[in-house]
Amino acid sequence: MNPMLSSHQQRTICSQLGIVRLELLYKATIHGFTGAAFHERCDTHSPTLSVGYNDSGYVFGGYTRKPFSKSGQYMYDDQAFLFTFSGEMLLKYPVTNSSYALYMDPDSGPDFGGALTLVKDSQAKVSGKSGNRYSYNAADVHGNNLNLTECEVYQLKVAPEFEKPWRPVIWESEKRTEMMDSIKLYSPMVNSVSQVRVLLIGPVGAGKSSFFNSINSVFRGHVTNQASTGCSASSLTTQFRTYSVKAGRGGQPLPIILCDTMGLEEDKGMGLNVEDITSILNGHMPDRYQFTPYTTLKSNVAGYCKSPTLKDKIHCVAYVIDGSKISIMPKKLEEKLAAIRRIVNSMAIPQLVLMTKVDETCSFVAHDIRDIYRSSYIKEMMQEVSARLSVSLSCVVPVKNYSEEFELDMNCDILLLSAIIQILRSADDYFDELSDQFSNIETKD
Prior knowledge:
Residues 1-157 form the TLDc domain. The protein is α+β, with helices and mostly antiparallel strands. The chain is built from 12 helices and 18 strands.
């Protein structure tokens, strides 16, 4: 059986209920819109999530910890709730009279105390009204459309976690110091280049600017907000910015420059213009260039670098992707990323993916960031990122940016520093490839 509940909707609900996964027990279009079919498939199973769908596009239902039965009695459950989806958001309506949270109707499907019943009296219908058991607005929950096109019941099961992390990480302050020192002492393999230039590309709100702020924070010793960040439907970054991270306040620049771009948007003529990517990669675009989605960079723009050398070019591309939204990435946005990847591939520039917001993606990781590589859920999301962007799983690096904190966290720092080290290793691959090319040319001569 294929669940109708999308993977994003499943994750959104599971994030409210602990470290769980959903297993589909009953699907009305397969097993029948009858109370008998529902009870045969679902009785004695718990906890469960019951979901109704109508032809107005509403997705709604209820959750209970108690097993269903045909007893004809009410059941107590102080954790039960009704829900509906409003876009990507989950709206919950907790039980207000726990003694009447459920009614075990032998002739109907899931019945939440008469307030919401799916498959009422063995018909593809919704029944119920707001009252003293659950309080909700029917127009918000199902749009007053009482005709069911589908009804599903899922059992919640504890999500499996790896006993040992599938990527080993040392979570110690000494390791953090060691990683910081190795970054400070890093030197590009080409004498003409003193700093690795890394291009950050990603959708609006994925965390490109926040990644720079977070890396800057690690080396400053406190949370900083040099690059503008926040919540917005459109990109807050409107200029091409090159950020040099410094080793402490007033310290020397580190051997890495993070180049921030305007956020990608799915609509044509919005966000970063894909045609500007080539100019950036080749080192033509000046710092603080003002992006204009409808026009590309022209050679007569002030600061345009007409004869860029290797030190001006991009040595590694890092795609910044929100892990909590990868499964609902719009098709047009995915196509834009694919177009950019083709350009980057043609220039043989190494690429990796920074998967952000891992704490919002998995409640297990939100509880303890050190469990990131024990989470099967995070690994699944990394595999999905790998497949959608056509990069190796070894090139997908999960991170948590600083966004609401005042103080640094050693474990977050270690993830962020690991990302920088992977970026520098990728740049080494790029410089190695250039050296091989030059050696071959010299040999032929």
